[in-house]
Design a protein that fits this description.
heterotrimer; A mainly alpha; B mainly alpha; C mainly alpha; A: mainly alpha; two-stranded antiparallel sheet; C: mainly alpha; Four Helix Bundle (Hemerythrin (Met), subunit A); two-stranded antiparallel ribbon; 3 strands
Amino acid sequence: MSDTKTGVHVHDGDIAPGDERADGTEVAEGIRGYLIGLALSVAATVVAFFLVGTSLVWQPSIPAAVIVLAIAQMGVHVVFFLHITTRPDSVNNVMALTFGIFVVFVLIVGSVWIMTHLNYNMIPMERLMQMQR
Amino acid sequence: MFGKLTWDAIPWGHPIPLIAGFGAFGAVGALVVFLLYKGYGPYLWREWITSCDHKRIGVMYVLLAGVMMLRGLTDAIMMRSQLAIAYNAAGYLPPDHYDQIFSAHGTIMILFMAMPFMIGLMNIVLPLQLGVRDVAFPTLNSISFWLTATGALLINLSLLIGEFAKTGWLPYPPLSELTYSPGVGVDYYLWAVQIAGVGTLLTGVNFIATILKLRAPGMTLMRMPMFTWTALVSVLLIVVAFPIFTATLAMLTLDRYLGFHFFTNEAGGNMMMFMNLVWAWGHPEVYILVMPAYGIFSEVVQTFSGKPLFGYRSMVIAAMSIGVLALLVWLHHFFTMGAGGDVNAFFGIMTAIIAVPTGVKMFNWLFTMYRGRIVFATPMMWAVAFMVTFAIGGMTGVMLSVPPADFVMHNSLFLVAHFHNVIIGGVVFAAFAGYTYWFPKAFGFRLIESWGKVAFWCWVTGFYLAFMPLYALGLMGATRRMQHYDVAAWHPWMLVAEVGIILVWIGIACQITQLVKSFRHKEELRDLTGDPWNGRSFEWSTTSPPPAFNFAELPRVADRDAYWLAKQRAIETQSLAPEPAYKDIELPRNSPTGVVCAFFASFLGFAMIWHIWWLAALSFIGAFATFVAFAWRDRDEYRISAAEVARIDRANRGSRLAAIAQLGAAP
Amino acid sequence: MSMARTDVGFAGGAVNVPVVHAEGGVASKRIVTAYGFWVFLLSDVVMFSAFFAAYVVLVNMTDGGPSGRDLFNLSIVALETGCLLLSSFTCGVASLGARARNNSWYYGGMIATAILGVAFLLLEFRDFTNLIAQGAGPSRSAFLSAYFALVGCHGVHVTMGVLFLLTMMAQVYAKGYRPDILRRVLCFGLFWHTLDIIWVGIFSVVYLLGVAP
């Protein structure tokens, strides 16, 4: 197809991030996806809040469970609200997202690892003050 | 009313910054008045200041970089001179000034010289190499440039009004906190760098969208020129690294302005976290600088060896590997901060590993040259000097990557020598190679070769004389940021280094002479064919300078080095492909958004620095209003008629025929 | 069957090659704009992760002052979360409305999103002022600095999002469903949904893990 305004041949094998392929002009159809996303997100949120308040679950597992639920809910948002899927027309969008997630992971995990070690090796304040005299 | 600003902000009692400040601003002011008086105002406004054309914006970036290089080199010769005489003496620069000078030197050279230079060259060349009309977001491009210029303006303003940071080019807390830096110096740094940083981030977004979504039909990623590949890696790093810098500087700003405790001594702040976060940006930053440099050398080495780049695929893999590894090594900047053996070992090994893909690239350049017909034009000379110099710098880097060795050499002059070795040998040499190589494309006439060669020898000799002694000095125990010393053995080396920087300045003088003389003789040096070096990629298929629309019809690409192949076929048949069916072309209109946004950003930065809150609020509203006004316009493109396109293109075809006749006649 | 061939060339020469599926090529403006904005959003996510990293590092540095367990009110957080989550849904409705050029769905969705967004901001603003009033402001300790910076940064983004939203309503009102306006509506959607993703991270790591035993 051609972008006749600029006289340039336009090639659309990809989809814009956030766009849906369905060309239906019906609002009602599209709403289904958003409703499913909303329902799943609400479920994940409610469970997470519940877990923190309850004593029914083995306590040490709660942080891990909350994190897992968070990641799951982020996934729900990405698929149902942002329409970023693994279909071939969304590959560029997924690669960008993957790169971003990789950097976030390296930064947070790396920083925590480094800072914990630094703190662990830090001379205690009293000893440090003693050394100043 | 004026916050902390008083008349005392001007350094009346300090002749050096006073004269420098008044001199610099006086000169710029005089130039502006002169240009307006001569009637160049409307032309400059229409053709340059409000231009959204990537070629114009690129030239302005390089010009900014050149001007800031002069400021950075002035700082450099001041420091070297101080150290040459400050043996058992106080020298001529009090510590107060010396600290500002080395801080300004680093900030300017990295963020306002090297970055704009590389971004400028990418701006000029990328759309042409990709075979398209402009970048993805032309007006955003203009905004990016002007925000960078705002940052440069603020830094230079600190010379005349107030002071600059005394913390080094990365403002480590707690020194950079309000308690120990109560003046405006660190604030100048923070606002100048944050504002310029927004510009750089937007450039990163712009170029990623351009390279990944706007290429000539048929140009798959594996058919792109190598400069485009390395530019892609560079801008990918910009987009993921700069936000870390933004956040970290914001945390420091919050500490200084609103009493937060991210990095303070009291209330639980952790100043080591600043080092961690800032280097998580800082290391990718140097790869942001050096990747385009590698790309420039790939282009130059191919062209001046008359052979295609050896090992294209491995070059791509090497570039991407370097990009990923660059994100995994940042702790090597603070091995000595005490993270312990495990952490140091991991990052030391990752750092050493980066040498591998770099070596792959180095060998590929050498294999490209092997059995080529080498033409030692100035760009190629810079390339050979780069290969030798960067190899040395890289090797000292591998030395430093060994944590126990780094414990001895950290923050010594050995370190200073290493990073200047790789940045000058890599980025600056590439900047000069790219400048000489693409100058004819941008301006339509070549630079005088002889002056270029003289400048080259002055620069290279000067660099070695200035920095090789620093390796020795570092091993002898000399530290960085040292204002005076009393070790006799160091003095002769300092004197040799002084000779080096003087030679570098002679080199700069030669380059300025080259520019002026080339401009005077531009008719004799005119590039009539658009392809003065017999290049391999699409920028050489246009006139010099290219028309606003770059290509009358976007080229259709079936192979790597598509232009070279088509050119060979054209030389054989001594004919061109038939004329395309000319169509109207729409191009982005000029927009004052960039310069107006920068205008408000300058006042915002200045107001925040001096705590003039009403001015800050007004400027912020002004910047936002500009943005909305820009979003409201209805016509954002102008049309060039098919007839006009045809007229321009037919002239191009005429010169192409002349070129292939010339190339066909040559043996 | 012989492969189709074509002359590939331009004003520099021509090469005769087989026809191949052309990759590369100029993408449509909608894709270019949205992709560029997506990349920018990812850079914003990295910026948030720097604040997250700082928060995680400083979470225990309370300088003898109040910790998350002492300060966080999970009912307010639940309310805020509900507002944002629902606003993501209404934003989706607005996007569908824009695509269908249906004024009621578009304006309805946008207004609902705005109301929910402003409700979130009011709740958060009240929460912040309460904390500051009880001496648990950002200058009390490093933990509180990190907390206010991270959550505050998100709040600033939501504020900018509401301004973006109002501008998009005004633009559609003034200029109709023009292609360039629709591109911006798409970008707004991306922005708003991403902000909710960040909030999922915040309420989980800051609030829930902050009060978890």
